[in-house]
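Entry 14: structure prediction run for Phytochrome chromophore attachment site domain-containing protein. Input pasted below.
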Amino acid sequence: MEQCELEKLHLSGQIQPFGAFLRIDQSTNLVTHVSKNISQFCDVPFEDVLGKSIRELPWFPLGALSDLPDVLGSRLLDIKNNRAGEPLYFRVIRADNAINVEIELQERSASTSRYSHHDAISYRSLQGDWTEQDYFNYLTTVINQYLPFNRVMLYRFEESWIGEVVSEASKDNRTLYQGLKFPASDIPAIARRLYFLNPSRIIPSTNSEAVDIVSLEESVPDLTYSDLRSVSPVHIEYLSNMQVQASLSIPVIVSGELWGLIACHHPTSLKVDVTQRNETERLVASFSSSFGAFIAGERLKWLRIAEADISRLSLALTEAYADDDARLDIVAESIKTMFRCKGVAVFQDERVEFCGLSSWREYLVLLKYAVDKHLLGNVTDITDIREYIAQPSANFPIRGALVIRQSFERSGITIVILRQPEVITNNWAGNPDKSLLKEGDNGLIKPRNSFKKWSETSGDESAPWSKLDVLMAKKIRAVILGLRHPTLR
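Run finished. Output tokens:
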């Protein structure tokens, strides 16, 4: 994993051969770098391009430079015929103190169609009863119909960067990976950063040989902002092990963060024209915007329900503390109802109130000791309380704990919401422990060679606490802090 993170993918000094590359110094307009295959696209040897002013190249569309926004990573696409009359795409990208220029031939099979036949169903006008899975399936289905790739998958990242295929569409209607997870090491941090910064990543053939980039001063160009950037040998082998020779990946950016990826796979070499790629990028961007709005809407619905629950809790607690003797039992009962959990313990000085499974009562002393000694935050969530209990018995039944601490005063109360262990099955695309195998003959790490379903079942912990669980706990703490009863101040 560490070697993957250290691999400088953006400094390979090579590109894929389906295009040619120029790097222009922003201050001098001189070509400081050029790929050796430039003659295949512009009928001029690379020696006649390197070191020249861009204004000395009659085949270069100068207008694209003046129109390019002065924002790192911004890009424009221009078209100009070469000497043979073939249309060339010039992709101009703003880099750090330079401009990257990538040149591709227009594909003869380039489709001029757009996603217009899907305009009747706009994400922004979808029916309110759509679920997130409806969004996922719609996206993969549309892309599968439009692009020639054999398989289209929507890959969602978890907080730990483990990925899961949440939707899949294929030309043969067979699903191979839907519901399967992939370890975080499959897409290391440096690769995720490049996905975030670029609108797509195309690999037309894993069998093609990379092309060297030559420079004026033997420097390696930064290919952070590049569609042509060469492919890591580890990734080539990874795709080959999946029986994939061509791929297209498009980042799904939701609320300014890398939420997931669209991954298109094909068993043979396949070049997709720039226009088709750009159309698909726009569709994914539209999905990202609309799905982000859907997530915000769902969160708003939850907040409304939560506010109603909190209002009822506040009223119940106000009534409970109307007398001198605080009714901690009502606190426990009210919160257990809100969380639909197996038990809630409330501690204050030597007082203990518990609402839940009667068999758990005998463990409350151990629970209180663990909470008071180790879980000292205002709101703390864990999935296995046993790690804070010295020599827990084999039949210790409690696992998850969401701790809400009013204050550190003796009169302050501490609420512990409890969960039992839960059997959780994760289905992986291959054994995650073998995601990166031992070094091969070339000294590089090797990816796993099997992506067959591999199930991992665990039942030692509770289900994880969600962000909404923690947010609700913070709201409960705010309610308790607002109570006026002397035993709670």
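Notes: The domain at 2-111+118-296 is CATH 3.30.450.40 (Beta-Lactamase). Will compare against the previous run tomorrow.
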